[in-house]
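Appendix B, example 12.
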Amino acid sequence: MPGRVKYGKITIVVFLTALIWIWADLALDEVLPDKHATIVVDESANPRLWVSFNQASSADIQITLSGPHTVIAKENRRLRVGDIRKFIFDVVQEKMDKPDNYGLRLLPFLQKDTQLRQLGLKVKSCVPEVLDVNVVELVKKSLTVQCIDEDEIPVPAESIEPRKVDAFVPADQTLTAKVQLTSSEIEQARVSAIDKTPYVELPGGSIRQCSTAVKIKMPPAEHVLTDYTITTATLGYCFSENTQGKYEVELLNPPADMATVRIKATPTAKEVYEQQPFQMMLYILDDDRRTTDEQRRAVVFNFPEEYVRKNAIRQNQEPVTARFKLIPLTSGTPSLEE
């Protein structure tokens, strides 16, 4: 009788072969070096603490991973498409929830990550080895609410109720609670008040939502400010009694840079502003006499006070920085005691 195919033995052989390959895959770890990762502060761990890495809410690091070939290959594909691995830092869990400055040893922290361990990945090394952690206690303060648009430029509101809200902020910081409005929200608020929740931006960019919502009403459409670009702006200089007539200003900016200003204004306010002798002013301080080297200072937009009080005009650009030198008009530079 012909020999029978012994399927049972074949199955055992296949099974054992598969086990050998799986064991070999697991036993031979591969290394995935120098991959970017980020550590993010869990701000919900204790809302009354401001936890940061040198005033930043996250920190970029580099890690070297190891693990089985299939897991490493999958991780490498994921990282290639820009999906950076993120680690959450819980200040309470790490027992750093008292106001102070700490040094977080990164490798032990990363090696505890549950998700990596479940995937079979290990962190072999990291850069930096230690991360500075700053923990600051926050105090409750009553903050004025300010509206800003999508470009973070202040937008005057007709009314904000309540005008102030409570928020936890650093004791030594003077901050404002902000409400950012989209263009459609601004138009909607011209018709009827809208509800928005303010937020506080801590130094370094960390955002904290306030617990109180406010009602915002914007002014009617007839008071809407229009964008204008003035290309014939003139810069004036304001001297003190100690510098008047003794120095001249050598402006180092290209003329075109100082001649163009962008504003938001009503047509009347824009016309009055253009007719002024100077659209911007550079204040010369007595201490400026200490050097003849290049100095820098933000200019002041010389808006007509009447229209500023009416919220009818405001700047629509970043502050303009003047680069200048102070040149003595007489031989020798007068001293500060003169």
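The chain is about 20% helix and 40% strand. The chain has three domains: 27-135, 137-223, 226-328.
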